[in-house]
Amino acid sequence: AQSVAQPEDQVNVAEGNPLTVKCTYSVSGNPYLFWYVQYPNRGLQFLLKYITGDNLVKGSYGFEAEFNKSQTSFHLKKPSALVSDSALYFCAVRLRSGGSYIPTFGRGTSLIVHP
Amino acid sequence: EAQVTQNPRYLITVTGKKLTVTCSQNMNHEYMSWYRQDPGLGLRQIYYSMNVEVTDKGDVPEGYKVSRKEKRNFPLILESPSPNQTSLYFCASTRLSGTTTDTQYFGPGTRLTVL
Known about the structure:
The complex is a heterodimer of chains A (115) and B (115).
Chain A: E1 2-5, E2 10-14, E3 19-21, E4 24-27, E5 31-38, E6 44-50, E7 56-58, E8 64-68, E9 73-78, E10 87-95, E11 104-105, E12 109-114
Parallel strand pairs in A: 2-12
Antiparallel strand pairs in A: 1-4, 3-9, 5-6, 5-10, 7-8, 8-9, 10-11, 10-12
Chain B: E1 4-7, E2 10-13, E3 19-25, E4 31-38, E5 42-51, E6 54-57, E7 65-66, E8 76-78, E9 87-94, E10 105-106, E11 110-114
Parallel strand pairs in B: 2-11
Antiparallel strand pairs in B: 1-3, 3-8, 4-5, 4-9, 5-6, 7-8, 9-10, 9-11
């Protein structure tokens, strides 16, 4: 079984400050990990993914995420938040091999960046 | 332009009236899936398809049907909609490779209301 937890329903940050959106996962094997963003009235858009290799993954729009195997976490970060980053963010996980292709998504975290 | 399209984008219907939501992708992807998004529950997978004529249940398949007669199309069918199927629906597709690391492309969503 695989699961994803996004412990915060909402994250508030001031523009220009660093932001972190948390994600922890549970999977019986090696994971593929993903972050997606959903802007209002839009579908999900891919931000970044961890497959293997460097634990720090850089993605679109200046976002990055760090894979921490010991803490089973994949937190999304950005050094300086923009008001336009305000959106709903989803973390997803699936098994790297031996499992189905069905990814499990977290419940989503609403990021609000204040001017 | 690579894209996943869904129609209709908005639909209000009544209990018991059969409906179909279409999904089409132009990327020659093998894998397609349907999700529903509900507040506080994130995305839950309804059905998925690994290729033409190959479909399987996701986490919440009750009350839904799908078909995959052509590679590009993956319609979602509600034979007898009920109010608890009021939700935001997303179609997604991805290419299957040897390592299956490709990300999913999502459609813009269909907001369904069942009265």
